[in-house]
Structure formats: C-alpha cells, structure tokens
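Fig. S4 source data, part A: sequence.
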Amino acid sequence: MNDVPEPLPVGFRAAGVRASSGARFRGLPFARPGSPSDDDIGSALVLRLWRVHAAQGPSEEVALAVLRALRGTGDGDEWNDVLTLPAAAVGFAMEVFHDRAIDSVHGDVAMSVLLLHALMGDATAPVVLAHGLAALAHGHPEAGRLMALSDAWAHRLHGPGRSVGGRP
C-alpha cells in the first residue's frame, strides 16, 4: 500500500472566500489557472496530507507546512478567520460536508485547515477531521486504511503532549 497521496491538480488557488454572513463558505472559488510552480506542486501535495497523516504525536514541521500551503489558497477576513479560529474552520468543513465535496480540492482545503487546528491542539478539529476521513472512506478503495485513520483521530481528544502549540 502506498501512503503517498496523489497530487492535486496544480496551478489553482482560491480567489478568496466571500460570504455575506461571515459564517458561510459554500462555493469557494478556485482560480489562477496556469503553469504550476514548484511551490504550487508542493502545496498541492501538502493539502492532501490529511488523507495519510497519522494522529500520533504532534508535528510542528507538518503544521508549518500545512499553514504555508493554506496561506496561498484564499484571502479576506473570512479566510483569515478559517485559518485562525477553529470554530470558523469547523463551519467551513461543515459546508464541504453538506455539499458532499469531501473528495475534491475544496475538501482537501477544508480538511487541511482542520489538520492544522488539530496539530495546534484544538479539541474539536480532530473529531471533525475523523468525520471527514470516514466520509471519504465510503466507497473508497482504501476504506480500511481511511477508517483506521479516522478512528485514530477520533480518539485523539486528551492526553499530555497532544498539541504543538501547547493549548489545552
């Protein structure tokens, strides 16, 4: 079994999250077609780490790589909230779940945001990330691996050393 994710289509980035209420993120537009740079290719791979990254032990390097990849995917106050506020990240992920877009670029962005918050010690993000992995597992050729990963994230709620940022 190969644990390296397939790369996303590269050369795209979110043109911004614009929502009337500040809490709705449906229809995150992707723009900027063109020749992908090495940074685009690296970011595309990082945005698929949520599909393979195990819940054991925090990794500051992974958190920083995910943050770097996500910073280039959107702009605006709502997007900043998604990156910095776990509740906004969960709201963003719920929109992706509602649209059944978990196995898409939108899904990879939403789940990567949750991975970032989980690695930074938020208690809710791992549970929602686990839900996303379980949703992706339905009908997936690697359903067993995805469900095992989902279970690991779902059980990563408490314990010493669970957060990179040291948040309780």
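Fig. S4 source data, part B ends here. Confidence is low (pLDDT under 50) at residues 1-36, 158-168.
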